[in-house]
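Think of the structure tokens as a kind of shorthand, similar to the way a musician reads notation: each symbol stands for something richer, in this case the local conformation of the backbone. In the example below we present two proteins back to back. Begin with the first one, reading the sequence and then the tokens, and try to describe in your own words what changes along the chain.
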Amino acid sequence: MLRASIAVIIAAAVGFAGVMMANAEAGRYGKQKVVYHINYPGGEGGKKYYGALRNIQNHINAVGKDNLEVAVVMHGNGLGLLMQAKDDLKLQGNVSNLKTQNVSFNVCSNTLRGRKIDKDKDLFEVFDEDIVPSGVAEVSRLQGMGYTYIKP
């Protein structure tokens, strides 16, 4: 009986320590604003796109979704991420999951027009409010607003 009580106390202490460490990590990073810039092809099987989305999720896990503003800006070959997601259920799930954590996915209007891409037919879940006039200009605008630039 004494062993069981000691085991419960130790388990509770370890759990409490884990919560305290998680809270300390959130405090370590504070509030952040970041722009993830994607303008490259996904490679075989979309490996690079999966890696980029994994980096974003890891960032959210470390900082906490309430302490983080994330904008993903895609132009040029980067639109391949949402083109591939149109038919790739796993990629759809990753994008949708990030959207539920307040990650915005911004799509370049210049690329849509220049490559004759229809946002409704060719891309996964892109709405009018997701379209920005220029991907490059959007990255610069966000950096001017204090967003940290990340190219995964």
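Once you have a description of the first chain, move to the second and do the same.
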Amino acid sequence: MNMTNEEYGRLVDSYSTPSPLIKNGVWAFLVGGTICTAGQLLSNLYQNWGLDQEQAGTAVSITLILAAALLTGLGCFDELAKHAGAGTLVPITGFANAMVSPALEFKSEGLVTGTAAKLFVVAGPVLVYGISASVIYGLILILLGAA
């Protein structure tokens, strides 16, 4: 069957159900906002417990990563993401979910070759390129005499 791109597009559109953009946008806003509000509340709590702002920020990051990883492991994060969509992609919780999900999919292959190895499917490239970029940036600063 020979079809042009336009004909194929019309065929796909005829079988696709329209996405409720307003509803999805509201859900993403509410869930993402709730995650960010929880982070701010945690930051205030940690600062009330005696941590300075930088230490509280670190503690909030650790807490949100732990919560997202735990919810992913329990299967709750995916259920939330079905309804909230992009609202769950608040960077730190989305990254934790992206790390834990592949590990769960490959747990049947064993603890080391399955779960542990797959934890770095997403994190590995991010860490490698992030560290490499920071080293190169630092070297450039030293060469330019700005450091």
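Compare your description with these statements about the second chain. The CA atoms of residues 94 and 142 lie 35 Å apart.
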